[in-house]
Amino acid sequence: MEAKYRFIGKATRRIDATDIVTGGGRYLNDIKMPGLLYGKVLRSPHPHAIVKNVDKRKAEALPGVEAVLWWKDVPDWKGGTPRFTRILDSKVRYVGDAVALVAADTEETATEALHLIDVEYEVLPAVLDPEEALKPGAPQLYDEYPGNIVTPGMPFFGPKALKEVVMGDVEKGFAEADIITEGTFAYENLPNPLPPEAPGAIALWEAPDKVTLWVTNQASYMDKITLHHVMDRKVEVRTIGGPCGGSFGSKFMSWQVQTYAILLSRATGKPVKVIFTKEEHLAAFVLRPASRMSARVGMKKDGTVTAVQGNWIIDTGYYSQTTQSQVAVGCGETQIMLQCPNWDLRNVIVCTNRNASGIVRGFGGQELKCILIPLLSLAMQKLDIDPFEFLKKSYVKPGGGYFWRDGIWYTYRGVDYAPMMDKGAQAFGWKEKWKGWLKPTAVDGAKRRGVGVGVHGNADIGEDASEAYVRLHPNGTAMLVSCVTEHGTGQRSNFAKMVAEVLQIPLEKVSIAPADSLFTPYEFGPAGSRGTYAIGSAVINAAEDARKKLLEIFAPILDEDPEGLDTVDGMVFRKRNPDKKVPWRAMSVDRTITGYGRFEPDYTLTTCIMSFIEVEVDTETGKVTLVKIVNATDIGQIIDPLGLENQLNGCLGTAGIDSAVFEETVIDRRTGHTLNANLIDYKWRTFAELPPIENIVLETPFPSHRFHAIGIGENTTSPGPSAVLMAVSNACGTWLHEYPVTPEKVLKALGKTQEGRKGGVR
Amino acid sequence: MAIETAKRKGNGGPAKARLVSITVNGRTYRLTVGDGPGLVGPAHTLAHTLREDLGLTGTKVSCDNGACGCCTVLMEGKTVLSCMVLTAECDGKHITTIEGLSDAKTGRLDPLQQSFIDHQAFQCGFCTPGIIMSARALLDENPAPTEAEVKEALSGNFCRCISHYHVVRAVMAASGKAR
């Protein structure tokens, strides 16, 4: 292959590599400062109760305790969408809801003080099932949400924000169908994204109305914006982001832990650090929204879907910050996967007395597909349609389109992903392994193999705005100023690479400023798969702007038009006479050059990843083993091959494929308590159980990006779960429709157990 | 949800000061066990002492409950979970943390660390110090492990980004088999 680029596409060293392998990286909890206090949260043991009184005298008397706060001590700041959720309230709405905050000179003292706080509760009836919560007479969580129904629509997405998919004429569509299937399906096993680093914050309040916040988030600039609104738009917030020990979307919703630190610093005048314990992380931080849907689909013999009608119920837990946006994006993602003229897919977002749902990879689309694909599969089975051919045919093609999150119809102008899907199928051996619906690929005694396929794509690669500066220095170096934090994808290194490529300077000559909102421009952050295309384009534009300004300065020096000049390795020269070179320092040593770049949102492109999964089911024990995974994608141009492979391998964890195999947060539906809020009882995949993964990556250029590249990382978790369900059903020869496919469910499906557990416990 | 168990301070009145001597990365620290500023609390874990008192924050704490392997360090050459060891019980022990793997004077990295860089055997990097320490202990004991032995040795280390595949490659490349 031709050497198109000097750095792009090459395996290069991550800029933070030495810090990571030597323990030199300073994550949030590694930061210390003089006078630092430690904050802790007293949490409710009840799923629903009035906080009648808090007696904090004993706690306040404990030496070392500097502040004890309950709702009467704090301003009436609120978060959520709409902003109805108080930081501390007179009512608690889930087991783990914050009742009081303590700051003390050591963590141990703060923890001890929690035990000295006496709370008087008036316990209220609780509701832990979304359909129960919708019934008349159900316990009401908020006065503002009659019937426990969360206000639909995400204001941030504009006046026409997508709330549902309604278009065409479904009755006409069903009349045209050769077969109609219907049923109720659910994806509600609540995996936790569960980064190793717990959520936390350090705050330093400066009276009367300023706060500096050290955060751990993939999007530290957005913390500033969220908190600005939470604090009545009256407090000036500066956020300082550092390395983030994993987020996977979840830490986007850190306003609560951040305001705990802010309120305690405001009360004490000292910096306060709050870091959640792993138990808090699992039981009082972000879970996936739970989905349930009764739906019907119409399909023709050739696999054309003629109509989709459904009522999607989303349980968001005790409040929503982003669930409306997940519904909007999920509706969009589902149209990308399933081009169909007639839709009537409505939804309702419901509050229940459990921990809140938030951002989890898949962002609405994984949820909706995991309940829609099983229904489509019933129709495919009846018509004997191969699911791979179906998914390939149904996926958006150039000229097709979709309503996106802003409620606007976009015509897709990206590449045709069908050839990539064919390559994936070939690598997996789909044609040989697919034996028909509910037919195993192979049987060896008690062990039966089956295959499944899933697909995901998202028009988020061009979502939201980004800005960046690139500053050039006389010594031939450049600095990127962007509010991007490193949360594991390696994107900070990739952006440095893009700057080096545009300016043609060695990679080690490019540095990146800290993600400090005091001086960086606006940055939505590497959410979804927008890093490469959206943030990357802002960075590239900034580097190009700086380069343009540099050449303008050198035009009179070299007596040439700027267009006739070029720069390589910190030297400027005439294109027609490259031998005469002048170093950047000739611009004068008392000068810097700053370029500015911005990216404007563009929803006309989508990603695509298809995952093929082979499982082996032990019909005696019920254990499901992943035998082989093939991921296929087309991303235009690889930026960093090792980083990309890491991202694709990430399909297993963080609420990905393992959501269908064994991961779940177990909540006792009678008491509201989380039963597995620790890393022993919450199951995770170990090194000893790695399935073989093969990643097929095509590079069909996307012309609208300077390096013809788009992102994919966030998507990799999403095609897998429904494919696992399909594969296990095929292996067993009977439908399994409940996630995750634990041995108990497999044995039940095979008719080898008593009926499942009865009663209130799920 | 159970409220976090308090690590209560001893109530037995002023206990006699007790010295604990630990050697970390070749440097010996004499620590006093007791309650109060600058003292090692009787309930302090080794992870706490390393991070909060000795400033060795390369050792990460994730679950603080002995489940995830993030806080793995070497004690007398064997892996221990430093969140499950009380500092007061470490008298006379030799401990190596991630900071002790590279040469403090020259900055030269351990071959295993270099291999992790070359294979990009990390993503967010939070679990990486613990994984490297587990892998170091394995290679010290078994310089030429099979891939299965590497996976087994690291099966107590939680990694959520799924860097496992690159980690296995990095450890194999740094092992005796690769040389």
Helix fraction of chain A, binned, reads: 25-40%
Q: Major beta sheet of chain B, specifics?
A: 5 strands, mixed
Please give the domain count of chain A.
Answer: 3
Mean pLDDT of chain A: 96
Rounded radius of gyration of chain A (Å): 27 Å
Total E-strand runs of chain B:
5
Output the CATH class name of the largest domain in chain B.
Answer: Alpha Beta
CATH T-level topology of the largest domain in chain A: Aldehyde Oxidoreductase, domain 4
What kind of assembly state do the chains in view correspond to? Answer: heterodimer
CATH superfamily annotation of the largest domain in chain B: Beta-grasp domain
> How widely separated are the two ends of chain A?
56 Å
Q: What is the overall shape of chain B?
A: elongated
What Rg of chain B, in angstroms, do the CA atoms define?
Answer: 18 Å
What topology emerges from the helices and strands here?
The complex is a heterodimer of chains A (762) and B (179).
Chain A: H1 17-22, E1 37-43, E2 49-55, H2 57-61, E3 65-69, E4 78-79, E5 85-86, E6 91-92, E7 98-104, H3 107-114, E8 118-123, H4 130-133, E9 165-167, H5 170-176, E10 179-187, E11 200-206, E12 210-215, H6 220-230, E13 236-241, H7 255-268, E14 272-275, H8 278-283, E15 290-299, E16 305-315, H9 323-337, E17 343-350, H10 365-383, H11 387-394, E18 401-403, E19 409-411, H12 418-428, H13 430-433, E20 442-444, E21 447-456, E22 466-472, E23 478-481, H14 491-503, E24 510-512, E25 515-516, H15 531-558, E26 565-568, E27 571-574, E28 577-583, E29 593-599, E30 609-618, E31 624-634, H16 641-649, H17 658-661, E32 693-698, H18 720-732, H19 743-749
Parallel strand pairs in A: 1-14, 12-13, 16-17, 23-24, 31-32
Antiparallel strand pairs in A: 1-7, 2-6, 2-8, 3-7, 4-5, 9-17, 10-15, 11-12, 11-14, 13-25, 15-16, 18-19, 20-21, 21-30, 22-23, 22-29, 26-27, 27-28, 30-31
Chain B: E1 18-24, E2 27-33, H1 46-53, E3 72-75, E4 78-81, E5 94-96, H2 111-118, H3 128-141, H4 147-153, H5 164-174
Helix pairs in contact in B: 2-5
